[in-house]
Amino acid sequence: MAGFATYDSLKAAHDAGQRYYYEFYQSTGSAENTATLTTSWASGTRPAAGANPATTPGDVYTNTAGGIIFPDLNGVGKNKYLYLVSAEIDGNSSPGSVFICDRLVGVGGVSLSSTGDKTINTQALTRYTTGEAVMAFLEITTTTATSAPVVSLASYTNQDGTNTRAGGTITFPAAATNAGSVIGPLPLQAGDTGIRSVETLNVGTAGTAGVCNLILAYKLASIGVNNGDRTTQISPLPYALMERVYDGATLFIMTIGYSGVEVVAGEVGVVFN
Amino acid sequence: MVGFNSFDDFLNEVTVNGKTLAAEFYKVGTAAEAAGVPHSLWKVGHYPAAGEDGASTPGTAHTSSDGSLIKWANQSPDTKHLVTFSATATTQGMLVLYDRLVSVNFSFNSTGEKTINSTTLPRYAGTDSVGLQAWVEVTTVTSSAAVMNMSSYTDQDGNGTASGGNITFPAAATNVNAFIGPLPLAAGDTGLRSVETITVGTSGGGSAAGNLVIMKPLAYCPLIANRGTNNDHMIMIPSLPRIYDGATLALYYVPSTTTATSFWGSIRAGYG
After folding, report:
1. Does the pLDDT at position A93 exceed 90?
2. CA within 20 to 30 Å of B233's CA: A75, B48, B140, B174, which one?
3. Is A31 helix (H, G, I), strand (E, B) or coil?
4. Contact yes or no for B138/B210 (Cβ under 8 A)
5. Helix H segments across B3-119?
6. What angle do CA B180, B185, B190 make, to 5 degrees?
7. What is the ipTM of this complex?
């Protein structure tokens, strides 16, 4: 029976060394401003930089290099649960937040330099398959120029499996939005609370440059960090709910609260039973 | 027996039985009226999309309404309980998670008694209405600082014709999405079941209008700019607020600045 039927069984799992532990140390992307997300996916050093996803229909992330990954255990009847998240932003002078997310699918090479519907057709989710709480983000890989793009999910499939859904628009923070910035989560249609797939992205206002990846991700943890200080969150005491880390999970980091490049370091630990 | 009868039971339910529910939100607020004046995030997107105004009297009873942060399936006989409420905001303030029960759109651009006759509560009925609050969510900017009171409401014990004190809007031009309240209750009251009338003593002028919102606050999340807060409601703040089937979860915040604020956050619940 996977999971922890009692606190004693959780303690026994720890005592038996049934845990994996990963220390990460990466550069953030160069966020456009302190109110814009950025990602460490394309940066090293630990884990090493991940690659941009392929063009449509893109990639499915399953223990993919570039992510924080743990061994698969379902084959031996065990599940993994997040028990430790810690993070710091080295050298920063202001507070911020670190998000630990599971990177599910992605489509690369989406042009932001021309208007119209861009074919995305993400592949089927292999985790969080209902799409509930799954979010779509745009990772900027080539800095935009001239005009701040305005985009929307022109066609996606929601958490109930209903397709041809269309979300509202979102405007990039600047005409020249830095590569390394992350836009999102992208707006949903009224009534929706998740995404199973994205079929098309509409660029309503285009710049003269700009390329992005469209990523579907699920957030496992968020942690606030003070300047020059490491914050640690332990589950289940005092953070009672232990998020499951599924086999194949490809964890990556997003941050908020910084402009420019920072160094983000920390730890992710899972306990299994 | 529903709920969790021990910490072991909780661990078993959420890990062995996988009884967890997740929701995410990303809200881009509009400019707040002033520091310290609560501001609603109901009418803004992006994730999920914005909710809508209530209907005019008797209004809208909210059951998993569009705009809700959650659309979780009913889990009866199991009961759902909030375990984690976390958020990051671009400015300092306090974010409040609440269950939006009823909303009634009404105009207050003239003085006098306004008929509300709010519809039946979809949750927290009867004496469970202890702790419910009534607020006014501005939907059309005012041109005068309105003064109003609940001139007739039904309290938590079912006593009709209760009447509360006045509340004064913070400014002549009170911003759209300003969240005014909670509206004062009569001495001795601790909740309300319905609102029958609101008396506008000083008009909001222009086309002033708003939603009378009856709600149940669930959780509070104080925020420092850009530094996320992660609140656990099992161990850190032992409360496990119940999230009823059909709940329409929404947010308002108490700002420290008029600067429009963006929020990213998560809700996690367990059920058993």
Report:
1. no
2. B48
3. strand
4. yes
5. 7-11
6. 110
7. 0.97
Q: What is the DSSP pairing of strand B179-180 with strand B229-232?
A: unpaired
Helix runs in chain B, H state only: 7-11
Q: How confident is the model at residue A66 (pLDDT cuts 50, 70, 90)?
A: very high
Question: What distance in Å separates the CA atoms of residue B228 and residue B42, rounded to the nearest whole number?
Answer: 21
Interval B170-198 mean pLDDT: 97
Distance CA A206, CA B109 (A): 42
Work out the burial of residue B58: count CB atoms within 10 Å of its CB; fewer than 13 is exposed, 13-18 middle, 19 or more buried. Answer: middle
Q: For the whole prediction, is pTM greater than 0.95?
A: yes
In terms of residues, how long is chain A? 273
Q: Which of A185, A225, A239 sits opposite B46 (nearest CB)?
A: A185
Token code pair at residue A191: 């009534």
Mean pLDDT of chain B: 97
Which of A6, A79, A241 lies closest to B83 in CB terms? A241
Cα(A18)–Cα(A49) distance, rounded to whole angstroms? Answer: 28
Q: Report CA-CA distances (Å) from A117 to A151, A168, A204, A270.
A: 10, 14, 8, 41
**Which chain A residue lies closest to B65 (C-alpha atoms)?**
A191
Beta partners for residue B217, in sequence order: B98
- Cβ contact, residue pair B15, A3, below 8 Å: yes
Residue in B69, B71, B264 nearest the CB of A256: B264
In this predicted model, what pLDDT tens digit does every residue of B101-112 receive, in sequence order?
A: 999 999 999 999
Point out which residues pair with A124 in neighbouring strands. Answer: none
Q: Do the beta carbons of residue A153 and residue B47 sit within 8 Å?
A: no
Which chain A residue is nearest to residue B240, measuring alpha carbons? A240
The residue whose two tokens read 């910490």 is B7
Instruction: Respond yes or no on whether the N-terminal peptide bond of residue B48 is cis (omega within 30° of 0).
Output: yes
- Asked if residues B15 and A1 have their Cβ atoms less than 8 Å apart, the reply is no
Residue of B nearest to A224 (CA): B228
Q: Of how many residues is chain B composed?
A: 272
Is the Cβ of A77 closer than 8 Å to some Cβ of chain B?
no
Q: How near does any CA of chain B get to the CA of A38, in Å?
A: 13
pLDDT in tens, A162-180: 999 999 999 999 999 999 9
pLDDT at A229: 87
- The partner residue sitting opposite B232, judged by closest CB among A222, A239, A256, is A239
Quote the Cα angle for B114-B120-B123, to 5°: 130
High-pLDDT (> 90) share of chain B, %: 99
Cα–Cα distances in angstroms (integers) from residue A155 to residues A14, A82, A169, A234, B70, in the given order: 45, 33, 12, 39, 21
Q: Check A6 against B71: CB less than 8 A apart.
A: no
Interface of A with B in 143-202 (CB under 8 A): 159, 167-168, 170, 184-193
- What CA–CA distance (Å, rounded) separates A207 from A190? 28
Summarised one tens digit per residue, pLDDT across range A12-41 is 999 999 999 999 999 988 889 999 999 999
Q: Do the Cβ atoms of A195 and A134 come closer than 8 Å?
A: yes
Cα B166 off chain centre by: 20
Residue B229 has pLDDT above 80, yes or no: yes
For residue B69, list chain A residues with Cβ-Cβ distance below 8 A: 193
